Amino acid sequence: MEVCKVCSKILSNIPNDMLEVSLKYCREKLGRADIVDLLKKNDSEAIGYFRYRLAEKVGVYLGEASELVKEVFLIMDTQDEELTITLPLTLIVRVEKYTAALASVVEALEATILEEYRKILSPTCDHLLVYVNSCFVEEEDFLRRRGLAVAVGSLHNPATRVWSRE
Amino acid sequence: MRPNHRHGQVQRRSRSIFFRKLVEAFDLDGFLPGLASLLLDNVPGVDSIVVFLYDDSKKQLVPVSVSGCSKEGLREINLDHGGLSVVGKFFETGRTFLRAKKQVAKVVAQFFYPGYPEDCRPESLLCIPMVLNDGTRIGCLLFLWAHPNSIFLKDLAFFKRAARMIGLFAYKAKTLAQSQEKKHSNLVCTLSHELRTPLTCIKGYATTLLNGGEHWSPDEQREFLKIIDSETNTMKELIDDLLESSMIESGLLSIRKEPVLLQRIVGKAVDDARLRTAKHNIVVSMPADIPVMEADPGRTRQVLDNLLDNAIKYSPDGGLIVIQCNVGEKEVTLSVADEGMGIAPEHLNRLFEKFYRVKSELAGTGLGLPVAREIVEKQGGRIWARSAPGKGSTFYFTLPLAGASYPDIDEDQSGVPHPA
User: CB distance B335–A65 less than 8 Å?
Assistant: First the structure.
């Protein structure tokens, strides 16, 4: 197996790229340059695009980092009109098994994303304690729809798959 | 308060201190000779106490701790024919026995050489065999009185309890010594195996090159030399581990602190680790604001190398290895997490013991982590591990921030300033 190109970098540099890509995605989708201002005004459309693209980037990163990661879902915590920039981005990560290395990489990734996110959306997000919140569901629980796995197939508020190994 | 009552309280306290000392004793070999004396201090009225331990290989009761009489006068009691001696008979059955005045001389003759010292000519004798619940015979505890009828039956319960505790204590000391012996014997086996494997390889390829070097193409010859080089490195690492271990034993492991940049040390360690494995994903997470620290760069690198080597060794191909660094108020914590087989809780506490190995079939001497611990602790840090079977492991170590300073980062040098 080849060494993952993304992973071979120092992780601290990656969240910055992820946020930049997400902002760029919003700019392209909305055709506007002042995306950071829109986000600060809690524009739900901008936030929605930003969150989706960031979730996708985190999914890709985790998938490339560990072969144990099978799928990543974005949980829609709330209706679009209630989206705010301080609302945590909850991800469900389906894994073959949850390991110490996955816990460590996610802890580092979440902390560095939070730091960058606070910088971009200061001062509104200066005191934010959690932004990306990755929840792991092991394969067995996923197949038996136990715990958070239930949220993936929810009829009322289904999760969006943002990355898959297949 | 009545004097007798107060006396009883003092005695109870002094006896409970005796038991506490027994339970808390760490240096078992060093504690054993003074045991009789410690016990004698807590049982007024008794003139002498002797602790006999049973030597299974010689089938003998051997006096190991004596107080109140001369040890030279005591002799080993042969139990080959247990039924023939009084002591042997009671030891075999595990029954306490008491002898006074006339009967005592016969029994005493078994414990002492003929002409035993006058100062220890007992008139009463109490012998309590030390036998564990599972029937394991440990030895016996002998109380001697210079006058007849000196034994207070109310003390008997304490004597029996003391014998039981000393028995457990001696058993603990014995099993510990056996486990040390076993560890050393395992080490010799491991080392012979670990050294022989690369040596056989080196010898094979060197002989091949010497005997028929011309039959092999330059590429093949180079490949053989690379194998010899790699196997020599393996041997060197083993010998280095052994040397480090002996330096720890003799207290000679030196630490030379100087200003260091952890980013640089981690960066180099990871670059080298990537050369050793192309089959693992190695992720590094370092905050940008790590201060310049006071640490031994070579030794810190050695600890990181060891943790990374273990992560590589125990992780499956394609496994993720994460090196994380967190700056706290008083210390910096470095961690190495993997997706390996994990470690069961019963092994976690013993990982840092010398020669301890969780899986003996995997290569290693069991010296890497103890050496790492010594290095970390000598620098004022801590080292520990968290793990669960099948879920990988995370090893942490800290380095104190005392003496640390924040560097002036020069952007032109990609944020990597000068120290180490």
Answer: no
Distances B83 to B52, B86, B142 between C-alpha atoms, Å: 18, 7, 19
Instruction: Render A134-165 in DSSP notation, one character per residue.
Output: EEEEEHHHHHTT-TTHHHHT-SSSPPEEEEE-
DSSP state, A107? H
pLDDT over threshold 90, residue A21: yes
Cis peptide bond prior to B370, omega within 30° of 0: no
Least confident range of A7-16, B40-49, B95-104: A7-16
Write the DSSP symbol of residue A123.
Answer: T
Six-digit token pair at B183? 């560890």
Kindly report, residue by residue over B245-304, the tens digit of the pLDDT.
777 777 777 888 999 999 999 999 999 898 888 889 999 998 888 899 999 999 999 999
Reported residue count of chain B is 420
As a whole number, the mean pLDDT across chain B is: 79
Closest residue by Cα to residue B84 from B114, B59, B113: B59
Interface test with B, best of A99, A107, A113 (most B CBs within 10 A): A99
The model's pLDDT over A62-108, given as tens digits with 9 standing for 90+, comes to 999 999 999 999 987 666 558 899 999 999 999 999 999 999 999 99
Q: Stretch B303-313: mean pLDDT, rounded?
A: 92
Cβ-Cβ contacts under 8 Å, A3 against chain B: 274, 278, 280-282
Q: What is the largest CA-CA distance in chain A?
A: 45
pLDDT tens digits, B401-413 = 977 776 654 443 3
- A90 CB near a chain B CB, below 8 Å? no
Average pLDDT score over residue span B12-37: 71
Phi-psi region of B385 (alpha: psi -120 to 50; beta: other; left: phi over 0): beta
Cβ of A11 within 8 Å of Cβ of B274? The answer is no
Spatial distance between the Cα atoms of B304 and B332, rounded to a whole number of angstroms: 14
The pair phi, psi for residue A162, each rounded to 5°, is: -110, -15
Residue B373 has pLDDT above 50, yes or no: yes
| Residue range B79-87: mean pLDDT, rounded | 61
CA-to-CA distance for B66 and B50, rounded, in angstroms?
A: 5
Name the closest residue on chain B to residue A68, using Cα atoms: B319
Rounded to 5 degrees, φ, ψ at B185 are -65, -40
Q: Is B410 exposed, middle or buried (0-12, 13-18, 19+ CB in 10 A)?
A: exposed
Which of A99, A100, A112 shows the shortest C-beta gap to B285?
A112
- What tokens appear for B335 in the block? 């961690």
